[in-house]
Amino acid sequence: MLKPLITAYLRSLQDELRRQGLYDPDTLAEVESHLLDSLEAGLASGLSPVEAQQHALARFGPPILLAQQFATQRKQPMQKLYFGLALAAGLLIAFVDAQPHWDDTGITVFALLLTGGVIGLLVQRRPWMFGLAIGLWLPLYYIITKQDFSMLIVALFPLAAVYAGYGLRRLVRGTLHSA
What we know:
By secondary structure, the chain is an all-alpha fold. 80% of the residues lie in helices and 0% in strands. α5 packs antiparallel against α6.
């Protein structure tokens, strides 16, 4: 049975899901299954094939809105968890660095870079927020306790690392999807 409207809809939805980093073949297959069920119900009720397709697609709404619904359902809880982890890691790194006998800048910088890179691999959007969540605590401590504003430069390390991880993730996902 020809179903060009549903095929075009699914292609558009697939493109939108890929654009948002949410593409999953199982999700697309599930949407296709529901659309075909709706198409069959429309045909059984006496609609023409084109009318049945239009009716099925109208129930789902535009692909961009459906993709946004998927994004809201899938991204929000995990992104909040990652943000909490970024805050906790940044606070822990600042706490350790603030200890009176701690004097190992290399380990502190490594911890900021490693944490930022890992978080960057996980986040879906707004990587700058995650970089700042990790990296602002240490400079803030030095500004408050020693009035040392030069430590603001330290916030750039996790920020750069988060963007590096974020960019790597997007590059790998883009390469895998285009193959």
